[in-house]
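Per reviewer request, we include the raw input and output of the structure prediction for the construct analysed in the revised manuscript.
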Amino acid sequence: MTDVTVELSDLRGWAAQTGRGSADLGAAHGYASSHIADADFGAILELITGDYAALLPKMHGILESDSSGMGQEQRALSASADAYQDADRQGRDRFVELGGSGALHASDDGVANGFEDGVTAQTKLTTPSTANITLPEVSFGWILDKVCELVIWVGGPDPREYVTKWIAGDVNKATMQAIAWECVAACVEAVEANLKSGSAAIARTWMGPASAASATQMGKWSACLVDQAAKMRQMSAHLKSMVDQAVKMAQVVVDIIKTVIDVVSAGLSNAAIPLYGQWKLINSVKQAITMINNARKVITVFWDVLKLVVDTIKMCASAFNAESLPPAPATAPAPTPAGVGG
């Protein structure tokens, strides 16, 4: 026979704290749905578009499930407090048997101690500021078109198709989403920290089988929230890294194309000279083709990096799974008076 000890105001304070956690996670869901909702960053990050687009609804869904699940925890805790209070009213000397499981020792000092949130989680959900990050200019007008025509004429790859078309996209939007991922992670971490503190506080004034079950349940929630926040921070870091490398890659490629234009333009300036001018132009174009192929290699190396990020995106998507969350809690069994404890 296991006795149950409970301070009702503390239990209600703990229930209220889990309710705030539910509200905070709901706010995180709304924030993510607004600020992390678009997977189209343009051609430069096109390789991740499909997998990233598939990740977003999973992330939104897990936050919604977090909020719903924490709300169920609040209702279960409140129902337990109500059940204990009802049993306490029926007993003498504030002791009542709980369905043969032991005696209830209930008290209520009217004050919930230790259930203040250490961090206001929703303050972490700040609107991402514009990063003002742009890609280097790749539009060179008619001269680039002329160079491309000559490269194709000599048998080389069209730079417009194989090089410059990939130097386009909204890296500023990607950076803002990276910031938003970080904000959501910080909010989830704050909720977890608050719940961890509250779980420790309620353990001092609520003891018995239901208390142990609740502690186990909240331990599972803590692990889930910690894992989710870690994955979110990972996505933030990867997006920031991708933008940084995309801008650097684009600058290298644009510099190469500028050099290609200079080389071919020099060849064109001598094109009117019989024989020599044509020979000079063809050699200039051949040099340009070599540089264009170097630019293509730079892009390929960047794509290899993106492929590694795709693997991380897939891993995060598999982690944002509502089935991995703790099951809905059961409320404490309704106490049935069976005598008076002493």
